[in-house]
Structures are given as structure tokens and as C-alpha cells.
């Protein structure tokens, strides 16, 4: 056992775990293996710890920001919690803007790390409204927006860590990479790294169906498409219904002992569809965060 110099050093290096029951006999007969990358094991509880650390550290290295500055971000939750953690470690003031319909656990975690929250009315436009307000506050000189949707240091985190970890953990055997899409940082960075190692790897993006609310992920309207998104890195898209993601989140916990969030379960739904149409595949999906972040929504009570 080694000692870490800072909590920052515990970000990444998350486990990759084989599913035992949910893939079923059919997947076994096809020679398919489905593996879960447990990003909820990061110190602030999600895949976003990697992006938050990367965006703040690199901005600091470029001299764009320095400790004591105020940072502003529009976030659906996990990025906010991760940024609040990194801001606490490195000595920044953090203002987080989020729609008021997001779960209570998320808000409480951000304030625990010392961030200031601004809640925007979900009925007035949700994340789009929050993103516009962040830009307006920056224009008014109230702080610096890192803008995870346009910041190349977001996917860069995954080019440098998540991608290489998966390549090593599967000993280069990964055939399919499945991720839910929010800012698209995870799928862009990890997908592009893996395809640079083996161009035959298939990158699959999970998106919510029209009218489905799955926290953290979106099918963005054209004018709000994240600037870091490059369509050429996603080979296949899977559309996920909220009800099937929620049901799968309950199964993932009860049948596999993996307590993940709803978007993670959506990625698993996509991974199972991939498994049903392929053979001899090593399919990795991202478990973005932990299920306890969603307890107050009641989704695990059914
Ligand atoms: C719960 C959850 N799932 C999925 C994602 C998508 O990750 P990315 O923004 O890297 O596409 C996020 C992003 O915030 C998230 O919070």
C-alpha cells in the first residue's frame, strides 16, 4: 500500500469488472464478454473527476487562472461536484449553475466542497439556460468559465487516462466501447484513443430517447451541440428510453452488485444490444457514477 501526496492522485485507475449474470447464456454462447468501468470509484464519485482535474490543472499551467480566482460552470451535477472538489484542493472559489430539478444529493455534495450554487428554473430551459447564464456572468467579469462543452482539456483527460487504462486492462482485446453522451468528453477522448490503438474498435454512443430524462446525458439541439463533439469518432448510436435505463439500474445493483447511476445503466442497455448482434466481442461500458447519487429520486424504490 502506498501513500498518496494529495487526493488528486487518487483520480483514475478505476476497476474494470466483468458482468456475471445480466449478459446471460446468449452472450456466453456468442463468446461475448461485457465489462463495466467503475468510474464511481473516483474520489468525488464520478467520471467527471478526470475532466475537472484536467481542465483546472491545464488552465493553471497555461497561466489562464491562478488560485484565489473565481470559476463558474453550468453543470448537470457530476461535473459540478468534481470541479468543487478540485477547486477545494487547489484554492479556487467555485460558482456552479444548475437547473433546479436536479437531485438533492448533487446539490448537497457541491456545497459540502464549499461551492456556491445558482439554481435556474428548469421550466425556463434547463441546461441551455444554465449554459447561457454562465457565459453572461463571465462577460460581466464575475469569474472564469471553464466550459466543459468546448474545452479540449475535457476529452484530453480521457485520451491520457481512461483510454490507456482500458487498453491495458483488456490487454488490447477491447472490441467495443460504449458510453453515454453528455458533454461527449468521455466518448470523444476514450474513443479516439482506443481507435488510435486499433481502428477496428467500435465506439457506441448512448443517447436518451425523445422525451426521456436521463440525468447527465442529452441529445442536444443542433445549436447547443458541444464544440468538443466530433461525429466521426462515434460509429453507432443507441437510443435509450428512460424506463429501460431505470429498470436496468435496478438490475445492475440487484443482480451484479454494481450500484451505478441511470446513464450508466443506459450504456449497459446499449452494450447488451451490441452483444446481441456480435460475436467474440469484448464490450466495455462506462459506469459514470454511483446509484446513491439518485436515491432521492425514488428510482431504486420500485
Ligand atoms: C451521470 C452522467 N452520465 C453521463 C455523463 C456523460 O459524460 P460526458 O460529459 O463525458 O459525455 C455525465 C456527464 O456529466 C453524467 O453526469
From TrEMBL:
The keyword Transferase applies. Its EC number is 2.5.1.47. Its cofactor is pyridoxal 5'-phosphate. Pathway: Amino-acid biosynthesis; L-cysteine biosynthesis; L-cysteine from L-serine: step 2/2. One of its GO terms (molecular function) is cysteine synthase activity. GO terms for biological process: cysteine biosynthetic process from serine. Pyridoxal 5'-phosphate binds at residues 78, 182-186, 263. It catalyses: O-acetyl-L-serine + hydrogen sulfide = L-cysteine + acetate. CDD domains: CBS_like (cd01561). Residues 7-289 form the Tryptophan synthase beta chain-like PALP domain. InterPro entries: Cys_synth, Cys_Synth/Cystath_Beta-Synth, CysM, P-phosphate_BS, TrpB-like_PALP, TrpB-like_PALP_sf. The modification N6-(pyridoxal phosphate)lysine is found at residue 48. Keywords: Amino-acid biosynthesis, Cysteine biosynthesis, Pyridoxal phosphate, Transferase. Belongs to the cysteine synthase/cystathionine beta-synthase family. PANTHER family: CYSTATHIONINE BETA-SYNTHASE. This is Cysteine synthase. It comes from Paracandidimonas soli.
Amino acid at each position: 500500500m502506498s501513500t498518496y501526496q494529495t487526493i488528486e492522485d487518487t483520480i483514475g485507475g478505476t476497476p474494470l469488472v466483468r458482468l456475471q449474470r445480466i449478459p446471460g447464456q446468449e452472450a456466453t454462447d456468442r463468446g461475448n464478454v461485457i465489462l463495466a468501468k467503475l468510474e464511481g470509484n473516483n474520489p468525488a464519485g464520478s467520471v467527471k473527476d478526470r475532466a475537472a482535474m484536467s481542465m483546472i490543472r491545464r488552465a493553471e499551467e497555461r497561466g489562464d487562472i491562478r488560485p484565489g480566482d473565481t470559476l463558474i460552470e453550468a453543470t448537470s451535477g457530476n461535473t459540478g461536484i468534481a470541479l468543487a472538489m478540485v477547486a477545494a484542493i487547489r484554492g479556487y472559489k467555485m460558482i456552479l449553475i444548475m437547473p433546479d430539478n436536479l437531485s438533492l444529493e448533487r446539490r448537497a455534495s457541491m456545497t459540502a466542497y464549499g461551492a456556491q450554487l445558482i439554481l435556474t428554473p428548469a421550466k425556463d430551459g434547463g441546461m441551455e439556460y444554465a449554459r447561457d447564464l454562465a457565459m453572461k456572468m463571465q462577460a460581466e467579469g464575475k469569474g472564469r468559465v471553464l466550459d466543459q462543452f468546448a474545452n479540449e482539456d475535457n476529452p484530453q483527460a480521457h485520451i491520457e487516462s481512461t483510454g490507456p487504462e482500458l487498453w491495458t486492462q483488456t490487454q488490447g482485446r477491447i472490441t467495443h466501447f460504449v458510453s453515454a453522451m453528455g458533454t461527449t468528453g468521455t466518448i470523444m477522448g476514450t474513443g479516439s484513443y482506443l481507435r488510435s490503438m486499433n481502428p477496428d474498435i467500435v465506439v457506441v454512443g448512448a443517447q436518451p430517447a425523445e422525451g426521456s430524462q436521463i440525468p447527465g446525458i442529452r441529445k442536444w439541439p443542433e445549436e447547443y451541440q458541444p464544440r468538443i463533439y466530433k461525429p466521426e469518432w462515434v460509429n453507432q448510436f443507441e437510443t435509450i428510453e428512460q424506463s429501460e435505463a431505470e429498470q436496468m439500474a435496478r438490475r445492475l445493483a440487484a443482480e451484479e452488485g454494481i450500484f451505478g447511476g441511470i446513464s450508466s445503466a443506459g450504456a449497459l442497455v446499449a452494450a447488451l444490444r451490441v452483444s446481441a448482434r456480435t460475436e467474440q466481442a469484448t464490450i466495455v461500458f462506462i459506469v459514470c457514477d454511483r446509484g446513491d447519487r439518485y436515491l432521492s429520486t425514488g428510482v431504486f424504490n420500485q
